[in-house]
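Lab notes, practical 5.
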Amino acid sequence: IHLSVNGWTSPHHTMSILGVVDHFPSTRGTRYNLVLALWEIQGPHTGEALGDIVVNIIKE
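Output from the prediction step:
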C-alpha cells in the first residue's frame, strides 16, 4: 500500500485542498488508485499541520 499526498491552491488563492490517494494492487496484480480524501486546508500549511490532517484522514 502506498499513500500519495498532494496540495492544490485555487487560482485566486481563496481555497487550499489536500488530497490523499491510496495505491494498492489486487491479488491478480491489477493496480488500484482510491481517493481517500480531498480536505480543505484551513490554518497554517506547515509540515506538522499537514501531517496532522493526513493522520486524521487515515484514522477516519
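Observations recorded by the TA: The chain has a mean pLDDT of 93. The two ends are 17 Å apart (CA to CA).
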